[in-house]
Every structure is written in C-alpha cells, then in structure tokens.
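# nightly structure sweep
# worker-07 picked up a monomer target from the shared queue
# config: single-sequence mode, recycle default, output format = structure tokens
# input follows
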Amino acid sequence: NMLSAKVDVWTKTVNEVLSDGTDYSFLFSLGDQINEYYAQDGSNLSKVESEYSGFFNNENLQSIALATLVGNHDNGNNSTLYTEHFQMPGVTSYGQNREGDGDYSFTYGGVQFMVLNTSNLSIADHKAFLEDTLKKNPNANWNVVSFHKSIYSVASHVTEGDIVQLRTGLSPIFKQLGIDVVLQGHDHVYARSYIMGGEDGMTADVQKNEDGTALTDIYQPNGVQYVTLNSGSGSKFYKITNEAFTYTAVQNQEKVPNYSKVSVTPDTFTVTTYRTSDQSVVDTFTLHKNAKDPE
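# output follows
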C-alpha cells in the first residue's frame, strides 16, 4: 500500500519535529497536503479523502497549531475539498480560485506572514493583497511571503510558463515592497537563493565565504531571501536539473525527507533545514537586520 507508506513517513517526520524538545509556535505546510488531483466527476473522492485522513492521521498534530496553504494538488479542478479541510484566518478575495482559498495573512512573534494562492496567476491581485496587508500592519519586524509554486527552484518546474509568469511578475514587487523572506514549495528539492534585488528584483547578490561556500550569516541584506523546501513526507522527490542557476547559493537533494526550523528575534531570522534520517543539518543561515559588528 503506497499510501500507508507515505503516511508513515509523514507521521515520522512530524513526530521527529515535535519530539526534539523545541517549543514550536506552529507548523507550516507549504502546499500539496495531498497528492491525488480530485477528478471533475468525483470518481476518486475516497482516494482523495484517504490522503487527507493520512495527513491528519497523527495525534501529535493536535498538540500544535497548523498553518497550511493551497498547492496545485490540493486545488484539483477548483474543488471545495481544500477549504472543507482547512480554514485559513483573514482570507481575502484576492488571488482566490474559489471562495475561501484566497490570499491571507497572519502575524506571529513580530513576523507578518503573507500567504499567496499561486494556483491563481493574477499578479495584480497578489500585489494588491500585499500592499493592503502592509498598509494595515506596517510595523512587523519581518515580512515573510509564502506560497506553493517556487519561483527560484532548481528542479523541473523552473522553466514552466506559470512559474516564469510568477517570477517575472512577483520578484520586482517583493523587492519594491521590502519583503524579507519568501518560503516556497512545489519542486521537491531544497534550494536557498542568494539575496535577490536590483531594479527587476532578480539580480543575485552573489556573496560567498572565501572558500566558496555559502554564507551562514547575511548582514543587512538589500533584497529578498528565497527558500524552496524539500518534501516533508518523502512521497516524491525531484532531481536537481543540471543547469547552473546563478541565483542559487545552496541546493540539496538526497532523497531524504527534510524539515526546516525557523527561529526569529527582532534582529535575526534563522532557517535551519534538517534530514529526518539522522537530524543532521542540510543548511542553515541567519539574516541580520544590522551590520556586522567590527571585529
């Protein structure tokens, strides 16, 4: 039974995350909570529902707040199933495919999370949502955008039309609006960009350590940090394409489920990504608001 094997890995990942002694605020799943596309004639409803059950199967999930966003698999044929299983706070009509799945935001611990439905390709909608949200809450320490369809990935989706449209449309807007971090999914690999800026929001600020490795501390970033997260359930991995992407500081695919921990202070934003196999670190970095103290 393929499904139960996937559910077991997802359950193991969640258990591992929650049993490591950290007092987490919430768990954030960046789309595709299920894999099965709901068919227009409803013929595969029981399979779709069994995947939802598998996602929720873990009693440990009851001990932590859960945030989700809509991925293309959740959105199969604009079904109501996603919004029946997940209710998001403060959902707007911007970026919606159907009622209840539009762009939404929440703030936690000084971080404002602005969540886009990238099954909707309206750049104007997403821009209006971001502008509205930032006007209403201009004082967050960190402004983070999250959505499913990664625009700075290193796997197969990166050249597809919808991704190109989102990248060319959204990157300049994120830079103009002063977004700090963008968390993304969809491409089943781990990738960390350089800080992206310039007029078009797409110019990589290529800074490395002297030995050529990626920075672990980035001071006063002038632009946007993009992160693409790998699969947490291990149900699907994509291979990194062999093109060289000038925007990528770190990329990793070992076909091991990953999870990432985010920890935040008013001055720092840290993302550390782990392998579920042995809790070793795939990548870690910290953004610093301030300049580095002189040695």
